[in-house]
Every structure is written in structure tokens, then in C-alpha cells.
Amino acid sequence: MKAHKHFTLLVVMAITIALVGAACGPAPTPTPVPPTPKPTTPPVQPTATPVPPTPVPPTSTPAPVKITFQEPWKLDSDRGKVVKGIVDGFMKKYPHITVEIVDTMPEKAKVISSILAGKASNVMMMPEDWIAEFGPQNAFLDLAPYVAKWPAEKKGDFYSPVFKLAQSADGKVQYGVPWIGHSMALIYNKGMFKAAGLDPTKPPKTWEELYDYAKKLTTPDGKQFGWGLVGKQGHDQAWMMYTFMWQNGGKLISEDGTKVLINSPENLEALKFYLKLKEVAPPEASSTGGGDVGTQFLSKRIAMYFLGPWAVADALSKAPDIEVGTAILPYKKQPATTIGSGILVIPATEKNPEAAWKLIDYLTDTEPQMGILVPATKFVFRLPVRKSLLTHKWFEENPLYKPFVQSLEYGNVPFPHAKWGDIHNNIVQPEFNKAYMGTITPEAALANIEKLGNELLKK
User: Fold this and answer.
1) β-bridge partners, 160
2) Is pTM beyond 0.70 here?
3) Is-contact 192 257, C-beta < 8 A?
4) Are residues 230 and 281 in the same domain?
5) DSSP 3-state assignment of 332?
């Protein structure tokens, strides 16, 4: 037992010494181990911002709308057909808007009541004197905010005297927008000019030349006269006399409508000149109205007169043997003529002004404006009212109508103020006719008009 324990102890000691000796001996050279390469990190790329998809406009069409357009000419008339053709063009451009044309105008006395009752058409064409009367009564929607959005090339393209007819006196309220217009110009027979030794390319430019030409164009046999004069009492005689007054710098009434100004030296001179033209006019002139002078021209009874563009179209179609000439009216102090306009308005009670305005905006664009002129039938009843159209090819092919468009720049209206209507109808016309017939002097006629007119204004 003791020997066994002693052996075990020796073995343990031997192993221990061996381990210690091994630990104290030289270390073996280790085999080199290559370093483990670090993984390569790729460069960081910027993250792209996601692009939202382009919104797709809605494919639904605007809701259908129906509006009415009121104008004065029957649809089956030549004028009505022209209007219908232009409106058809609008509906082609805006297929969701249907326009029904009402081809009659309401009686003047019923305009306000129809608007207040909500029974008026969405768009209405009215003459300038109705605008002057009903505009201040707040009958129409103020279109100034709409017109303000027009580009400058459109807004500034209207003849100023025509555009003012659609505004309030101070220009702040836009009662409507002029659509069509007309003016008066000189119409003459070039063949008669040649026969009388006058240059047909040089029409008269002054009152003195007008009288001189008319005298030379009046034949001794009494078959031909130089001037077509309206001597029949009525609206035509009055506005023709006004035209000569404006050409001499005269006025009819103050701008504020408080005083009649017709009894002036300028107007007296003009009235006397009108009466002097009796010497070169047919003897039947005392019963001649505005339409009658056109008939006299077609029958070669007269060589010169003045009227609107429709008279030229009438002569071209009914008297093709007459070589027609036209020119701006002769004047004394300043160029002046009588003008009128068909003005588009929207009633103040309109519930759908956007569709109504689209129609007005379209009708006053250049292409629809030229649609007023129909060269195929030589039928011209009104004119476009935008200045830029004077350079249109149509006018190069139809130069006889140029003076009528140019004359819009010198325009005046027979009713310069809303209060002038009663004076014009009830006082001016009979007094002018008395002067024409010689029952009173020109001085007395003007004095009577001013006196009676001012009395009427005070009522």
C-alpha cells in the first residue's frame, strides 16, 4: 500500500516538472496566417425622390346648358339667316351650350318688367338708345369684370365712339358690349360724275365742294339732280340735320342732360346749309323719306346721297349698271356722321351669366364679326365694330364698304342722352319740318326747340 502511494506521487511530480519545463523552453515559430480581408462596402447612392403620377384631367364633359338669345330679325329673313349662321358656329365650338334664338324684341315699355320677372332672354341685343335709358335703372349685369379679363389686343380694338355707347356716362359701368354697328357715308354715281366732268376718284370733301358738285350734277332738263334730300318730317330728316350740325361742331344737349344746346350759331349755319341743298334736290324731296332717296339713286334720279352700308348692297344687287362710289361724308369743321350699334346685354336677374358671357365673348371675336358680312349674296346690313378688321382681305375685295367702317371713328348718335328721346320725337321733328317747308325761319325753329325742350326737361 505504501509503495503504491509512493509511485503515484512520483508520477504526479514527474508530470508536473515536465509541464513546467515545457513552459519554460523556447516557443515554436508559428506559421504566418494572412489577415482576413474586410468586406468592401459599396458607395452610398442617393435615394431618388418618388415622382407622383401626372394627374389625368377628368374626361367628363361640362353639363349641358341651354340659353336664349334675343335679336330683332326673323329667322327666315336674310338678316336672321346671317345671325343663325354665326350662332351655329358658337354651338359647334361649345357643344354643351344650346342657344335658342328668339327672333323678336320685347316692346320697349316691357323690357324692365320682363327682366324683373325673370322672363327675359339670357342674352339680348338692344339699340344704343335703350341702353342709355335702361342702363341707369340697373336693368343689366355689369360686364366690366368680364371685359377686364380680355387681352389688350381685343379690349382696345373697338371703335371708341361705338364702345362708349355700351357704358355709363362716367365709363365705370359696362352695361353691355357692342356686337354690330353702322354708320352713314357718301354714296355716289361714278358714271354721272364722269358725264359732268368730275373726277369719280375725287368725291367732295367739304360742304362747299358738296354743293358745287351737286350743282354740276343737276341737269337743266330736270331729270337728274345732284343731291338726294330728305324733306319728309320724321326721324330720318332729324338725324340727317343733326349730322350736318355735328360736322360744324354743334351740340344738341349737355352731357348731363340738363340743358338743350341746339340753338347755337354752329347749328344755325348747318340747318341753313341743309335747306340750301333744296336747290340741287328733286322737287318731290318734301315728301321723300330716308328709304326713298335710295330708290331715287337706283332710278338714276339723283347722283349723291348718304345712308348706311345696306344701301350700297342694295344698289349692287338691284342696279348692277351703276358704278357705285363711296366716301367719308363731306364736312365743314370736323368729320362726323351718324352711327348706331346692336349692343349685347345680360339681364341683371340672370342666374347663369357664365354661359351667357361665353356667347357675347364669341360674337365679338374677329371671325364671328366677319360673319356679319356675306359677300356671296352682296348682302351687308351691318358692320363689324373692331378696328383691326379693316385690313381683312374681305375689305380689299369689297372696298366700297371701307368708308362706313372708317366712319365709326367719327360717330354720333341721334339720341345723345336718355332724355333726348321725347324732345327728338315731339319737338325737333315738327320744328325742323316747319323750317324745311318755310313756314318758320331756321332761327325760329332752333329757338323753339331749345325753349320747348328745356321746359320738357324740367317736368
Assistant:
1) none
2) yes
3) no
4) yes
5) coil
